[in-house]
Amino acid sequence: MARIEAVNEQTLIVYFGDRIDDAIAADVNRAIFQVRESLGDLVTDIIPSYNSMLIGFDLNRTDRFDIIKRIRLALESNTDAVTNNNDNQVVEIPVYYGEEVALDMSDVCDKTGLDSESVIKLHSEKEYRVYAIGFSPGFAYLGSLDDAIVMPRKSTPRLKVPTGSVGLADNQTAIYPSSTPGGWQIIGRTPLNMVDWDSESLAKVNVGNKVRFCPIDKDEFLKQGGVL
């Protein structure tokens, strides 16, 4: 049973668990569709996270007690056919893992005891779930890493991480959609633009999607528009 708590007069947070795993992430993803389908424009905003979602609602058309009742009814509805499509969508992301862009590969190798080829193999062989979008537009938190390449964040964050950089932090991986400060351990770079300004969500990937990283060489990286 989901736990619903008030954040302020027109915002609620719905908790589906207290840990990060695929089953709870699937519950969050399903709930997004259930609430949107059942409540329509009564809901002004939905922000999903690892095990919860923040819901904003139109205070001129409903109140906290009514919206909580509506949300509980929505969560009991059946939208499996809709959410399964999103859950099954796999987005392939090309990544160049060359030394020019893998700014922290040597540190990752030192800390894990692996060579770069092994790190690349472990990183690219897994399929990751998009748990949340945040930090900056299009920044997707993906999990979970193979235990062998779980890495702490950098003790001193960079002031500017290049656009498209692929990094590791704790048991997650992510892509920097724009050049921002950051403390993730950078092991590669994608030539893709991770922000789609023509889409409703802005992000190239959405919560519930799966992501697979596909290694490419330097020539292919440049051919696809990558910048060194």
Automatic annotation (TrEMBL):
Its EC number is 3.5.2.9. Keywords: ATP-binding, Hydrolase, Nucleotide-binding. One of its GO terms (molecular function) is ATP binding. The keyword Ribonucleoprotein does not apply. SUPFAM superfamilies: Cyclophilin-like, PH0987 N-terminal domain-like. It comes from the Bacteria. InterPro entries: CT_C_D, Cyclophilin-like_dom_sf, PxpB. Residues 2-205 form the Carboxyltransferase domain. It holds the Pfam family CT_C_D. The keyword Transport does not apply. This is 5-oxoprolinase subunit PxpB. The lineage of its organism: Bacteria, Pseudomonadati, Pseudomonadota, Gammaproteobacteria, Vibrionales. The gene is pxpB.
